[in-house]
Amino acid sequence: MSKISIPIGPQHPLLKEPLSMMVDISGERVLGASLRLGYVHRGIERLAQTRTYTQNVHLIERICGICSHIHTTTYCQAVEAVLGVEIPLRASYLRALMCELERVHSHLLWLGILAKHIGLDTIFMHAWHDRESVLDVMEEISGGRVLHAANQIGGVRFDIDHDHDSMIRSALKKLHEQVAGLLDVIENEPALIARTKGVAPVSPEVIKKYCVVGPMARASGVNVDMRRENPIPPYDQLDFSVVTHPDGDAWSRTYVRVEEIRVSLNLCESILEQLPEGPVNIRVPRRVPAGEVIIRSEAPRGELFYYLRSDGTDKPARLKVRTPTLAALSLLPEQLSAIHVADIPVVLAGVDLCVACADR
Amino acid sequence: MIEGLFYLLLFPGLVFQVVCGLGFEWVDRKLLALFQRRVGPPWYQPLADMIKLFGKEDLLPTQANDLIASLLPLISLSAVLTAGLYVPIAGFSPFSFEGDLIVILFLMSVPTLSYYLAGILSIGIYSVLGGGRSLLQYFSYEVPFLIALSGPAVAAGSWSVEGIMNAQFSLGSFILFQPLGFLLALIGLIGKLKRDPLDIPSAKSEVIGGSLTEYTGAKLAFWHLVMNVQAVVGIFLMINLFLGWTKFHNPAIALAVFVLEVLLITGVLSTTSAVFARLRIDQLAGFGWRILVPLSIAQLTFVILMGA
Lengths: 360, 308
Fold this sequence. Notes:
The complex is a heterodimer of chains A (about 350) and B (about 300).
Chain A: E1 4-8, E2 20-26, E3 29-36, H1 44-49, H2 53-61, H3 68-83, H4 89-117, H5 121-142, E4 151-152, E5 155-156, H6 162-188, H7 190-196, H8 204-209, H9 214-219, H10 226-229, H11 250-274, E6 291-299, E7 302-310, E8 316-322, H12 324-335, E9 339-340, H13 344-351, H14 355-359
Antiparallel strand pairs in A: 1-2, 2-3, 3-9, 4-5, 6-7, 7-8
Chain B: H1 2-9, H2 14-35, H3 45-54, H4 66-86, H5 100-121, H6 125-156, H7 161-171, H8 174-177, H9 179-193, H10 204-207, H11 217-243, H12 251-275, H13 281-307
Helix pairs in contact in B: 2-11, 2-12, 3-11, 4-5, 4-11, 5-6, 6-7, 6-9, 6-13, 7-11, 9-11, 11-12
């Protein structure tokens, strides 16, 4: 059969964010793919140099529409590190609580998208229904469903009281049951297994070669998690397991992410158990002394890297963000070869792209 | 003359089948919504969608032939409507004759072939892909579908749908003796209707809209109507061949039983599309030829041996 190129993107039902791919196919086989990026480039890194540190918290939050909290958390940690201040322990616990809730809703969103792509709309609807309860919790404690504006340099801008505590606990309990149901489907639904098992497997060597991070790496058996390797309080005091799976195919990526939801739910519970008393923020100076710092944290999609250089003014001299999606994108053309056309959605979903993060 | 026109245009012809088609779409969407914790559309939504589509601008790629593109959905629609005339509804079948099952099956293949042509002839990349897929899918489900549907005919000793339906009064519903055949026919029907989980030719995340990617406006509305009427005719056919018991002296009872059976099959179809993920085309071809065909032949052999 002759070779034809089909465009996927920048607008395509498959993509939630603009990204362009030309996929060469012959019949139902994919021969190769080329990638084009930059449709949502907003110049945020440059923009950050023209704004004060405080203003940047709100700018950075808008890098991503899913993992907005981890971006501000990492940014604030970077600024606090240059300032040399230590935030109250309660504040770091509350930050971690939001991070884990964010991971839960990000993974549920992802599961919905995968299910939608393989024509399992029921799971899509159920996963997104469950995700709403996480968003409700986040809205209740911070005031925002997606953009929470929860962080400030020197702590957090919200506190939780007894009512919040019981509300979160009941939501977590319900989520535990619903996630168990979803996991049951993933482990037993024959058509889902047929569509994902053995699809586009990635070996640990390839993962290391492309520096792929996060659930993608863990699904290939690479045991990497910034929460454990670079423990910023309170993760050094929390006990949690890192979920890995040796197969590296689309199914194991699904499994790892859904298991991670459970781990995160447990983490939320233990954060609530151990939540210390005290203030939730401290005052910090507007001007930041000269210096530079690298902060790495675990976003829902993997390692998030922030480099911040200060020249002693109230504006950063350079802010560099490396998001986990970037590494996954570089792996994409290799994955999109020698597969079926019908597997393109599965591969794309398995990577869990966040194009807005990668383009900034 | 007047009677003939009534049959053709009102019952069991055009109007009745279109209303049933839209009603089927609504019940299906509402059931799917229930499975997915949604509210679902109001009863007039399928009709509203049709009217809206008729009001939309009609566009086609410049290289595509507008006449053929318009004719294909109309040919398919007339084929399925004609097929519908021969399927007894609650025991009422004014045009029934010996061998009408063959005619119905032939007419019900016309939409699939038109769908393939629509994809190939409307030039777009995704439509060509979708068209090719629809033909591949046709080869996978059609053979077991036909063999499964010939089971009741052989058991009843008649190739008329009405004859098969009547035979079930004395022999009992064929679903009891040929549950496997019923299951295979149902899978074939899902494949024919391109419904989830066999919506491979029109999988949105893979080939956008499949063959119909380039279709807009009234032509697209006609295609939707073809799919809905085809579903209704398919369900009516399944009822007559496998469930039976729809002809009583009291038309009210006959209608009640008939509606009940229609809802039963619709429920099964909706449940199937809710709980299964879409198969890949190679998986479907393997499934069709390695599993469905041997099973359907085994079923037919069993029926023939039982009858002998």
